[in-house]
Structures are given as structure tokens and as C-alpha cells.
From TrEMBL:
Its EC number is 1.3.99.16. One of its GO terms (molecular function) is isoquinoline 1-oxidoreductase activity. The keyword Amino-acid biosynthesis does not apply. It comes from Achromobacter agilis. This is Isoquinoline 1-oxidoreductase subunit beta. Residues 218-307 form the Aldehyde oxidase/xanthine dehydrogenase a/b hammerhead domain. The keyword Oxidoreductase applies.
Amino acid sequence: MTLTMQLSRRSFLQGGLGALTLAITSKGLITTVWAAEAAAQKYGADSMPGGTVEDPLVFVSIAADGTVTIVAHRAEMGTGVRTSLPMVVADEMEARWDRVKVIQAQADEVRYGNQNVDGSRSVRHFLMPMRRVGAAARQMLEAAAAAQWSVPVAEVKAVQHEVLHQPSGRRLAYGELAADAARQPVPTGDALKLKDRSEFRYIGKDQVRLVDLEAIGKGQASYGMDMRLPGMVYAVVARPPVVGGKLRRFDSTKALAVPGVLKVVEIPPMQGAPAFQPLGGVAVVARNTWAARQGRDALEIEWDDGPNGNYDSAAYRQALESAARKSGKAIRNQGDVAQVWTKAPETDRLAAEYYVPHLAHASMEPPVATVQIKGNNAEVWTSIQNPVAARDAVAARLKLDPANVKVNVLLLGGGFGRKSKPDFVDEAAIVARAMPEGTPVKLVWTREDDIHHDYLHTVSVERLAAVLDKSGQVQSWLHRSAAPTIASLFSVGAKGQQMFESAMSAINMPYRIPNVRVETAEVEAHARIGWFRSVANIPHAFAAQCFIAELAQHAGKDPRDFALDLIGPARRIDPGTLADTWNYSESPERYPYDTGRLRGVIEAACKGAEWGRTLPKGHGLGLAFCYSFMSYTATVVEVAVDEKGEVRIVAVDMAMDCGPQINPERIRAQMEGGAIMGLSLALTGEITFEKGRVKQSNFHDYEVLRHNASPRVIRTHLVNDDHALPPGGVGEPPVPPVAPALCNAIFAATGKRIRNLPVRRVA
């Protein structure tokens, strides 16, 4: 994830960071590049560690029996990337899918290119490189066949696992050509011929099912929790209950007396900014996880809570509200918002505040890692989104050459951004180092550990204020955001949201408003703030989309018609003119803000929901839309609210324009998952603190959406399958519009505005 921060000269002279680009490296550190000294701006995959690799000899191998093995270099956590990218390779190389085998790459960005599965970048960054890998492999097979037959290569053609000599009808199977093909030069540049879209067999179709589907369905797939090795021992950790807290003293006598407990190992305390460090504490090692947990419960520990021991989320909310009501640091400013507000009559002014609490990732599979150390080598088995970060963390901890650390990437039972942070892998390495050489140590987090010690999504208060003229046109827009920043992970004392956070549905709004001001408040973080599925788009879109619906009601207009009028006609906008210098690290020329595409998803979602139809009493439709991770999404939610205020989700219509649709089935699946996750966050998601401690512990008090509360109908509408466009992200964009669409639907059903999450029920 590449971040751009803009801090003042004063903050730099006081020890902060100036205007620079921050790249979070595989080691969880930050490298800095002064913008003024940058020779050339890099975008997309080129801006990421490892970049891209397009060598077919790295990604493809063919056995003598014709089996084509394709390497998946990106981790699978439910997005289908272990299927989609190999499928692209297979399509371009004319391989039969039933003769393709997919294997998972180990951590090695020099060999495979970037492997950090964050930011909805897998297809966005690797569609074209994987197409080129497949096309090169196809042409090398064709060249090998032409050489064997001593014919011009123009006379041969690869067709479904064979190369055909068209004049004579002779055929050679891929297995027969494999050895010779591997010795052919790799075609590049103009010599590389990609398929025409009309020739695709798999891309854009629904014919390829997940490569792991059968194994998952039969319980045979290998996740981090499934790892077993001979002689394995198990560890759990007692961590400081407060971020920044330290171990004062502990007594392990009773823990060591628990049958099966083998050892107690102290984990060094966190130093400085959290980054991806372990929090510290005491690990209990045992012959099984039950004994380890019983041993941990028997530890006698005294903690020093440190500087965050008084963190209380209710009091902090008041502090955020106070900050949001004061002038903040302007990050977008056009016209004169203050003057328009002052001169406008009170009847033309509208202001509102919105609150989103801390949220936990709560992935199905909690963090888990297995580490084995033998001499100067270490091997890791884990479910990780950023395998190179895990490799480098272990190498640094054990003082090994990274080349001597092997990271095996297993399936992830969910990630959502949590599992790109390898603190749990580092913990496992610390414990493995304390055990006899060669002992495999499996370090397990319980659900309670996961909830208590997560890298939480930020808490936020968003204040918006606008002035409408007599015709209902918005004349001014103020959006002030008060939320702790992700930058606090990497810089002690970092305050206020940074450019990369503000450029997620706050500053980059393309509305036809002459006076716009967006501000951030400099507030401190008291917990580990991490990225989370769709990141700052969640609070920003919640506030902005609810506020647009409020403005529509204030103007006496239909919310859909008001929104389309606010967006205006189709046009392509340079993000820089919206003060967005980040643009998800993509080229503003390649990825402008296209309001026509935004209008398209709004119209598709509303059409699917039959917007404007007569609804039963107590029912309502709500609309919200968002541009995030280079894709356009819109959601319409239908709710039914009974006399007791209980909310039932009747239906959800979701529209997405992600450009070329590579694997439509996976796009629809992620949209449906985004609907469920977005509703879960909106209705029940909330992490609270008292005395620095997270109050929630498991799914009984940090609820996820239950089956009986889920919508009975989710309709997905894929818009604009245009292969002339660069691909957008898919995993994260479905989430942000869901909560505001829900709250707008509740208003339509009841006349009551919801400005604070979670909803739970309508009072």
C-alpha cells in the first residue's frame, strides 16, 4: 500500500515528515522519496515493491503428459484470485482448463513480482502481465512446433492444448512440445501477440469454477489452522490488554503445572510506533492448544497499561465531535464556503454529523502461523496477505538472510486487510527460537485474541454542512473529518487523516458545487489503526451519501434525481483537479474520474430495484453510490420496519462498473459478500473501549450478520464490460454504499434519520 502524506514544514522541523511518498515495505517499514527529487512518477504495479514479472518460464511449466502447471503468486482469501489469474494465462496460451494445475507461489517478489494482496489490486495490476505470460507461452509452443516441422510459424496455430499445422492438418500436443518450447526465446514487445477479445474461451465467461472449490467443499483444503507437522507444539500468547502497555511482572509456576504445558516464553514489548510488531507479552507452549490456553489462564501477570490506559471510546467520541465542530486543516478548498454559509438564510442551510465506531476485521479464520527453525534456515506456513512482509519479519527477528526464510502461503479464511500485517508470524518465530532446534511451533490466536488485539478500522466523526439555493442546487459543501490515521502505525504521534485517506470519498467528489471545502482534524490514535476492506471509504461514503439524501429531502426532490443532477453530465475529470494527488497510486490519465460511469451504476441499481414503485406500508428504498479502488458502485436497499422499530432487509440491488469483467462469477460473489459485510457493519458492528481495553470478545457481543437477518434477495448488476478500459478493483468497492443505502431506506420507510452506526433498531 503506497501512501502520500502532506505535512507542514513546521511538523517536519519538529521531527515529522515533509511532503513525501511513503511506501510501506515488505518489512513493515516506510521508505521515503521526496516528491521534488523524484525523477519520474511511478504508477500502478510499477509503484509497488517487486513490480510485475512477465516471464512464462517463471509462471508456466508443461509436463510430458501435457499437464500445464500455472503458478498463482497472489494469496487466496476468497476473492478467487488463485483461479482468475491462472485462468487468464490458460486462456491466452490456449490451454484446456481441465488439464491445468494451479500451485501457490512462496514468498519471492524478485521472482514473481509484487505479492501483497491489499487494495483490490490483483487483477488491476496483473491482468495484462498474466495475459502476456500466456501469450508468450503460446507463441513459444507454436515456434517449437514450426521448428519440428520445418515450416513457417505463420502456418501453425495453438488450439486447445495442441499446435496445429493448418495446411497439412498435423498436430503436436503440448506435452510433446514442452521441452523444445522452453528453449525458445521469449517474445516481447511488438513480437508478442495477444488474443482478440472474440477469441477468449474463459475470460469474461462463467465456465471456470474455483480451483479450490471441491477441496473446500469436502473439507480438504489447507488453511493456516490446518497445518500439522511431526513433533509440532502449540502456543498462545497473553498480550498486554492495552496497546502500548508492557509486562510489569509475571509468575509462570501455575502455568507450568498444567498437564501438557512445556514452556513459557516472554515476548519482547512493542517499541515506538506499532507498525507490524508483536504487542509483547507471554507465550505458553504446550502439546496441544487446549493445554496452552489453560496454561495461559493460569499465568499470574501484572501489566503496566502505559499511555493508552485511560482510553474510553465514549469520551473519545465526544473529543472527535468537538474536533469536528472546529476549523481543521484544509485539504481541498475552492470558492468561499464560509462566506456562502454566512450569507445564506437559515432555511437554505443544512448541517449534520455522522458517527462510525471502531470495527474489527473478524475474519472467519483468526491469525495463525507455524514456524520451524533448522540451523540458519527457517520455514513458515501461514495464511498471509503479504508473504514477503512475513518473510522479512522472521528474517529480522532471527537475524537470518531473507533468502534463508521460506514462507509457504496457505489459503486464508478471510483477511480484509488484517492478514497483511505479520505480527502473528513474528510471534511464532520468537517462540520457535526459544524451543529446541527443529521443533515446529504453531502459534494460534483465539477469536478473543483476534477481537481484543486487532488492527482496528478507524473510529470517525464526519461533519457536513451545505447551502442550497432556491431551486435546490447545492451552492457550498463543507466536509470535516475527525478520525485517527493509519499513519499512526508508522509514525509516533501522527495525527489527522492523510492524503491517501482523504482521497477515499472525501476530497474526490465530482459534484457540480461551486464552493467546496474539505478538512481534517488532527486527533490522536489510542489503538492500532489498520486498513480494512474499503478503508476510509466506509465513514466518508456513509456520511456523504446520507447527507446527499438529506439534501434531496430538504430540496423536496427525489433522491435519485437529485443525485444525478448533482453529478451532472458525463465527463472525465482529472483527479488532481479534485485535490486528489494519490488516486489509489494509479495514473490520473489512465484512471480519470468518469461521471458517466458513475451515473451508469446509479441507473442500473435503481432499475433493478424498480425505483419509484409503490411500496407497502413500513417499506422504503434507499440509494447510495461510491467510486473506490478505480471502480464505480451503487446500491439500493429495500427495508421493512415494523412498529417495534425492528429492521428487516427485504432486498439489495448492487451495480458495479469495474471495466473489463474477467471472472463475472467471482465479481458477483464479491458483490454479494460485500452486501452482507456492509449490512453487518451497519447493523451490529461496533468495537468499544473502557480503560484502554476492548469490551467485545467474540461473536456474541461483536455480532456479524446472522442468516435469519440477511436479505432474502441480493441482485447484482454488472455494467459496462469494456475491455478498452483498464480494470478496476472488485473486492473492496461493494462495501461503502451499503450502510448509507440502508440508512436512507430506513428514512424512506419511517421518516427517521440514522446518523450513527450501528443501527441495531430504529428507536
